[in-house]
Amino acid sequence: MLVLIPLLLATPRPAAAAPVTGSAEGRPTWSELRFRARKALVAEAEVVVTWVEDRRSVGRLRGELDASFHGRSTTDCLHEIGTGRLLEMEYSRPRKRWRRWSVTDDTLVQRSRRPASRRERRRPRESWSDAREAEVDLPPDGTLVEGHLLLLLASRSEAERDDLVVVRRRAVQAVAIEDAGEVTESVDVRLRWPTGEQRLRGSRVLRCRRLRPADEDTSLGLFGLDSAVEVLVEPTLGLPVEVRGKSSALGKVRLRLREATLHEAPPTSPNGPGAEAAPGHGRVP
Q1: Contact between 238 and 259 (Cβ < 8 Å)
Q2: Which residue of 23, 117, 153, 207 sits 20 to 30 Å from the alpha carbon of 53, by its own alpha carbon?
Q3: Which of 37-51, 150-164, 227-241, 253-267 bottoms out in mean pLDDT, i.e. has the lowest?
Q4: What is the pLDDT of residue 23?
């Protein structure tokens, strides 16, 4: 028997959007996001972003990028859930480089390793001989974040931020989150939660959030993109459905959200909180 999964129909944005479930204390509504991008026949990219509550008041955010214009890389960071402040971060590119940042109240300590030769690339990271350590003084008034944390902060609130600094190699860079108004775009996202699934499809009014570094030539370390980045957010669910930016190799790049795993059914779902499960909406295999 054919079972039709109801669609989340495109509807105008309400005058005052309901609070995003699960984000009131800084926790996102989702546990995993999958973005994809394709530019003609020359470039493809896939990004997987996951979030878990590592321990009380601390979240773990992980970003995995596999792109023809960047290669493969993984970023892992611990952060304060309420403020988004970075506590610890690790970045790696297979056979190329590894970095780890530790944060105290006023100092950022970076340890890094790189293979010094092609032969070393085949060895475990711990045996790479190009090892370095550096310390960076942190500004007293800034909140230290990371590129993927900027994505989280831009999605969960409409507030503008000018108190942020982002980690870039052996330095920190001031960055702002700016509100760039609303845009109407077509979306097609598969939503999954513990007891069901549905599609977010059609033309939607989205909130545009701009991540702008003080130095326009500086990369924010988000999805391999350079300089300023725009994030389009579905306001009801707090989902970043598109990330726009530029790559030095390809020019303009747009990464669209294709799948999102939510902590619970969205408010507009037929089996959302307080509603009975619709036929065919059993647990997703």
Answers
A1: no
A2: 207
A3: 37-51
A4: 46
The tokens describing 181, both together, are 């108004």
Question: Longest Cα pair distance anywhere in the chain, in angstroms?
Answer: 64
**Cβ proximity of 12 and 25 under 8 Å:** no
Which letter does DSSP use for residue 125 in this model? Answer: G
**SS3 (DSSP) at 78:** strand
Q: CA-CA distance, 18 to 182, in Å (whole number)?
A: 17
The residue ranking higher by pLDDT, 14 or 206, is: 206
pLDDT band at 150 (very low <50, low <70, confident <90, very high): confident
**Where do the DSSP E strands lie in the chain?**
7-8, 30-39, 43-55, 58-67, 71-80, 86-93, 97-103, 107-114, 130-137, 143-145, 161-168, 171-193, 196-213, 226-234, 239-247, 251-262
Tell me how far apart the alpha carbons of residues 255 and 237 are, in angstroms, rounded to a whole number.
18
Q: Are 180 and 210 in contact (CB under 8 A)?
A: yes
> Quick check: 279 pLDDT over 50?
no
What's the predicted TM-score (pTM) here? Answer: 0.80
Write the DSSP assignment of 11-45 as a string of letters. Answer: -PPPSSPPPPTT-TTS--SEEEEEEEEEETTTEEE
CA geometry: angle 114, 220, 81, nearest 5 deg: 100
**How many Cα neighbours within 13 Å face the side chain of 116?**
7
182 residue type, one letter: E
- In angstroms, the Cα distances linking 4 to 67, 70, 272, 281 are 34, 39, 17, 10
What digits encode the pLDDT tens for the residues 61-107? 999 988 776 678 899 999 998 888 889 999 898 888 888 889 887 88
